[in-house]
Amino acid sequence: MTHSIDLEELAFVATVMERAHRLLDAEEKKLPPRTADGLEGPGSPHQTLLGAGELARGVDDAVRRIALAVGYACAGLHSHALRAAHHAHVAPRSVPGGTDRMARPLSSGTIEALKLVRQVSDFFGEGLREHIDRSLAAPEATWPPADWKQYDEERMKSAASVASGRSAASRLGHHETVTATPDQ
Fold first, then answer.
1. Distance between CA 25 and CA 43 in Å, rounded?
2. Which segments carry the region annotation Disordered (predicted)?
3. Cβ-count burial of 142 within 10 angstroms (0-12 exposed, 13-18 middle, 19+ buried)?
């Protein structure tokens, strides 16, 4: 079976994401330079700057992954293009997670950029649209946690709960089957 690459879709998504990147980059440049030691809480100027940078870099990385797939396809390197296209569909890192650090209300440029990413979120899958919606609706920044000890305890409880659920499922005979296929 021959897989094809939709160059029109890749070009459209890359164009939208590049517009979002330009907006985020401009918003990041408007922020004051880093002056803190990083111990400030959620929504502080320092954390807002970090979050804005994470968003801009995440969107830029997505554009680069898409461009790589297009480049391989145009060069006739089909197997490389397929692999790159597969990687291009991975949701952009720190998008919208960078907003967890940022003061509210979010800037108009950040909101516009996230709405652009939301328009092409089906390309990335993985619940990106829902994550963006939650981040746009969040009344305040939530990262980093104010109490790291409590945060670690909650993570441990959550991990134990997941492990317990897997253990119970395996005792009941429910197994997940993962099929791996080699890259071509």
1. 19
2. 25-50, 158-184
3. middle
Domain residue ranges of the chain, discontinuous segments joined by +: 7-157
Cα separation of the two ends of the chain: 12
Which residues neighbour 140 within 8 Å (Cβ) at sequence distance 6 or greater? 42, 43, 104
Q: Closest Cα partner for 44 from 109, 126, 114, 141? A: 141
State which H helix or E strand residue 74 sits in: helix 45-74
Are 30 and 15 within 8 A, CB to CB?
A: no
Q: What is the pLDDT of residues 101-136, one digit of tens each?
A: 999 999 999 999 999 999 999 999 878 999 999 999
Asked whether the predicted pLDDT for residue 180 surpasses 60, the reply is: no
CB 104 within 8 A of CB 136: no
How many Cα atoms sit within 13 Å of 46 on the Cβ side? 10
